[in-house]
Specification:
The protein is of the alpha+beta class. It folds into 2 domains: 4-149, no CATH class; 154-306, Jelly Rolls, CATH 2.60.120.260. 42% of the residues lie in helices and 25% in strands. Strands 1, 3, 4, 6, 9 and 11 form a 6-stranded antiparallel sheet that branches. A 5-stranded antiparallel sheet has the order 2-5-10-7-8.
């Protein structure tokens, strides 16, 4: 009889912890959107979060299998809610890491129930195997980012799968590597823009310091027979937080190949008379406005020209 209030309090605390833990992936993190290393770390965080969620549910339900099934259902629901609320995207990769976290929690709880040396060794091996893929992917993302920094003045030539990591399509723009219309090498970035108000290609978190360079060059091939108004938007750290501080330039592209030259000395914010800080570049965005029909572009060979 004396333990009943304590049991109720424990269950309330567990329920509150579960709600708080489940809400973490739903929190908006716009400052991390598209940043490869941040995205990789957030994906990796699914493993301990799912493991902790499974452990809390096991304490609450007192049965392993129902707790594991409910954890997986919550993880699936979170992925769907992220897409619905606009705080993230539904990802099968995230669910795979969630499953690894659930399996890790089950293995640990089984080992703690009967902590024999043999079982502990097997559990440690299982944990290493379960965490190998998300950890290896995170290390690969960091390695690719370091390699991109070493390739300056080349920002992107799309010759490897890692080149796609900092690139995202938004507002109805789909991206993929293509062998069509490369300017150098064997590949270009194919950008398929669907009709919409502002479909865009976003190059997030490039090497930040462009202060030793005077110009950004890029190659754009326009498919079709009609010219196309094309907008280039560049942000530094201040402009990343305040949309009014962003540099925006319109370029009218002709059908076929186009070479764009953007003088970095001219990166002045419209109406503000402030120059973009070229030592703290955050994003480069290529967008179309009020598009009424599908258009396809091929980007290649983004590079900075030394002073």
């Amino acid at each position: 009889m004396d333990q009943a209030p304590s049991t109720r309090s424990s269950r309330l605390l567990l329920s509150a912890a579960l709600l708080g833990l489940a809400a973490i992936p739903l929190l908006p993190t716009p400052q991390l959107d598209g940043v490869p290393r941040a995205s990789a770390l957030m994906d990796l965080a699914h493993l301990p979060l799912a493991a902790l969620l499974c452990w809390l549910l096991t304490r609450l339900l007192r049965h392993l299998v129902p707790a594991a099934a409910l954890t997986l259902a919550i993880c699936v629901a979170i992925e769907g809610l992220q897409a619905l609320l606009g705080t993230g995207e539904a990802s099968l990769g995230d669910l795979a890491v969630d499953l690894a976290g659930i399996a890790a929690a089950l293995a640990l709880m089984a080992a703690l129930d009967d902590p024999t040396p043999r079982r502990i060794v097997l559990v440690v091996l299982a944990l290493v195997l379960l965490s190998a893929w998300p950890v290896a992917r995170t290390l690969w993302v960091f390695g690719e980012e370091h390699a991109r920094a070493l390739r300056l003045p080349v920002l992107a030539d799309f010759e490897g799968a890692g080149d796609l990591l900092p690139w995202q399509g938004s507002g109805g723009c789909a991206l993929r590597l293509a062998t069509e219309h490369p300017h150098s090498g064997s590949y270009s970035l194919k950008c398929r823009f669907s009709p919409g108000t502002r479909p865009a290609v976003v190059f997030s978190d490039p090497p930040h310091d462009w202060s030793a360079y005077h110009r950004l060059d890029l190659q754009v091939f326009v498919a079709g027979e009609d010219p196309l108004p094309f907008f280039v938007k560049i942000t530094d750290e201040l402009a990343y937080r305040d949309p009014k501080e962003r540099f925006l330039k319109r370029v009218d592209l002709a059908p076929g190949p186009n070479t764009l030259h953007i003088e970095l000395e001219n990166l002045v914010v419209g109406g503000q008379h402030r120059k973009i800080d070229t030592s703290r570049i955050k994003t480069v965005v290529f967008l179309l406005k009020e598009l009424t029909q599908e258009r396809v572009l091929f980007l290649d060979d983004l590079r900075l020209q030394p002073k």
